[in-house]
């Protein structure tokens, strides 16, 4: 009986968990960590804000010093952002800029608009006076630690580091961050029929799109990719390629991914090359991308994807990418939405079908091409993978389906 | 009257359109074009599939040669993928593998499972026979051009090149692609109070998170970023930094972005430095990120963002990023969803409020932190920007709001 999509994904998670256990961490400048996953919990080395500061341009005051009817106060030296002001004396109000430190003795800010006069006096003006209304303590004060307190958890291990997370680390004064070392993948496309783009195309041959499609997907997912070039349908060729790369200590391989040669035909190069290795070839109850290989080659985690480009992309998106998100923390999972079908659909019983479609701004889902796994032009127009569970065989126009946004 | 969000975004679009007109294109290997935008329309130099091929492992036959009751046929030489087979003679069936070229004279494939015997004979077996059921013409044949025909539009100018689009170009045999040259941005953070992460923090000072946050955002959006380091609150310092970088012919600048110094306070370094330049400082009816500068500095497009980190991120996401998507073709627009509020919200009348929140797998939106534009820890927990239109002042728990997924 074919394996379910969930069971096969779990098997890929376990394979990556093993691979992850053998990997280390890297200490990187913040910007080099963009898109990588945090290695360990980070605790705040300081509070944010580090000191109480003003949320407005205005006057810093002691609120208790202004009675209900307001008060006329003497104008103290102005407090620009970045300054460490003197304590505020009783009877004074200090002009203060947004972000500037609240002086000791002050506990509230009156915005400049509410002052009389409603402009700041010239800094040189001695003995200037300002009339201010009463104000509740804490008004327009950003308290120290109101965003995060010293010692609190800032970011948890495994957090994917995007702009906001790196911005937080910078705000905390950190210029280096420890991230999980990316997985290094060895990517081998196979097939006598496959030719590198840019070369001459003899009759019966096709250009290799799997290598480009998967390398791009893997790079976006944070993997480091080594390509071997195309391996032909002779198992000995494939074995010698795999041995050459996996035995090179200068360029260690964490995961091998092959494309093609995993079905039940007469010439299945990956199946043949893996005989004697701890690799299972099995049907997953999914269309496209049903035939899958999974195991280890000489101890290195191994995934064998099928040979059609849409099958490759679906295999990556359904198995490897979610497993990377879960085990490595990068990439972010695909956003999941629900969308309404613009047209009826049928799907084979007992197979989870993954179709390609485009969700418009109206939330309506239009199919891109048919079910065929060779339709790479249709794939290039799609913005979503359409998930049709294995027990669903018919859907009507207007029915809601789950889509994964690409 | 403050400018609307839409009107300011349109002004940024116009600024970038001018900048775009001065830029060229680059011809790159496919993988280097990942995440960039196609410069011109690409038409298919060949059809996909390039030749009719088999969708199954089975026997290629002439359908007219098998009567209703089936037929016993002689087994021809097998056709592996990649081969250019001889024509099929009458009375023969050719073993054919998935993806292999349909021989001249054949017009359908009978899957191996329906053959008797249901395995392929040894290639050396002469005079082997196979019994096959009748089959309709075209069965399990992928016709040449069924995905795309020679000369058809494959990808339109401006298409963002992701894995599927690069895979299509590879399938079409292209190894180079012409993309729009990325924008080069000069990023200047300003403020006497701001210190580089990793340095000592004196009282009253804060660490610069804007530089990291915006550089990361801009890189993800496909921009090339030059950082000047922090410029202090002296307008002459800022002017000399801007002159030094914009007059360096080795490193031309397409767009200048500054942070801070655009409000109405007493020390607004960017406003002061831009006096005499064609730069407008204006309120946009948005919170946070209301004060904005926009124009040209010595002819170079200029954007002045406010100084708080959340304001910077919101300015980038609401104005620069969508304008880049529209004008440059990269990055992809943020996915827009609707989500239900976990809690009631209030919002100021007449201002489009952008709050930060997390949409759970249950579709429920929880706020991350309050409205304060300094809450960078809360920002780092959010996965969505919550869009509250300017005419909405109150929302109840369970109300639906628009969110942009980060």
Model description:
Two copies of one chain form a homodimer. With 406 residues, the first copy, chain A, is of the alpha/beta class. Chain A has four domains: 168 residues, 3-Layer(aba) Sandwich (Molybdenum Cofactor Biosythetic Enzyme, Chain A); 41 residues, no CATH class; 90 residues, Beta Complex (Molybdopterin biosynthesis moeA protein, domain 3), CATH 2.170.190; 70 residues, Beta-clip, CATH 2.40.340. Chain A is 20% helix and 29% strand. Chain A has a six-stranded mixed β-sheet, with helices on both faces. In chain A, strands 7-4-6-5-8 form a five-stranded mixed β-sheet, with no helix packed on it. In chain A, a hairpin with a 2-residue loop joins strand 19 and strand 20. In chain A, helix 1 crosses helix 6 and helix 3 runs parallel beside helix 6. The model of chain A has no long low-confidence stretch (mean pLDDT 95). Chains A and B meet through helix 2, strand 14, helix 3 and helix 7 of A and helix 2, strand 14, helix 3 and helix 7 of B.
């Amino acid at each position: 009986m074919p394996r379910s999509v969930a069971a096969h994904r779990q098997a890929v998670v376990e394979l990556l968990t093993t691979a992850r256990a053998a990997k280390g961490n890297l200490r990187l400048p913040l910007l080099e960590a963009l898109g990588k996953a945090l290695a360990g919990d980070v605790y705040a080395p300081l509070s944010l804000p580090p000191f109480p500061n003003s949320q407005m341009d205005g006057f810093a005051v002691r609120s208790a010093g202004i009675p209900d009817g307001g008060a006329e106060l003497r104008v103290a030296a102005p407090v620009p952002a970045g300054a460490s002001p003197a304590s505020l004396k009783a009877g004074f109000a200090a002009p203060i800029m947004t972000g500037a430190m609240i002086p000791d003795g002050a506990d509230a800010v009156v915005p400049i608009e509410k002052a009389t006069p409603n402009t700041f006096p010239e800094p040189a003006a001695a003995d200037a006076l300002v009339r201010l209304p009463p104000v509740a303590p804490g008004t327009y004060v950003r308290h120290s630690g109101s965003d995060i307190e010293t010692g609190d958890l800032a970011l948890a291990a495994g957090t994917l580091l995007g702009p906001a997370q790196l911005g937080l680390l910078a705000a905390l004064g950190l210029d280096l961050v420890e991230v999980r070392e990316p997985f290094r993948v060895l990517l081998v496309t196979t097939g006598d029929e496959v030719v590198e783009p840019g070369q001459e195309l003899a009759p019966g041959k096709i250009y290799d799109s799997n290598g480009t499609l998967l390398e791009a997907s893997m790079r976006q997912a944070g993997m480091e990719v080594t390509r071997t070039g195309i391996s032909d349908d002779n198992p000995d060729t494939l074995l010698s390629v795999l041995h050459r790369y996996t035995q090179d200590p200068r360029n260690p391989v964490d995961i091998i991914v092959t494309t093609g040669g995993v079905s039940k035909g007469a010439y299945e190069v990956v199946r043949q090359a893996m005989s004697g290795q701890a690799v299972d070839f099995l049907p997953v109850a999914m269309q496209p991308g049903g035939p899958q290989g999974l195991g280890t080659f000489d101890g290195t985690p191994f995934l064998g994807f099928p040979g059609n480009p849409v099958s490759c992309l679906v295999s990556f998106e359904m198995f490897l990418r979610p497993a990377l998100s879960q085990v490595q923390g990068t990439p972010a999972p695909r956003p999941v939405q629900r969308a309404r079908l613009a047209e009826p659909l049928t799907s084979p019983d007992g197979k989870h079908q993954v179709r390609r479609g485009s969700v418009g701004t109206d939330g309506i889902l239009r199919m891109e091409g048919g079910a065929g796994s060779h339709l790479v032009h249709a794939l290039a127009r799609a913005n979503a993978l359409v998930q049709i569970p294995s027990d669903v065989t018919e859907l009507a126009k207007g029915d809601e389906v789950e889509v994964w946004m690409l």
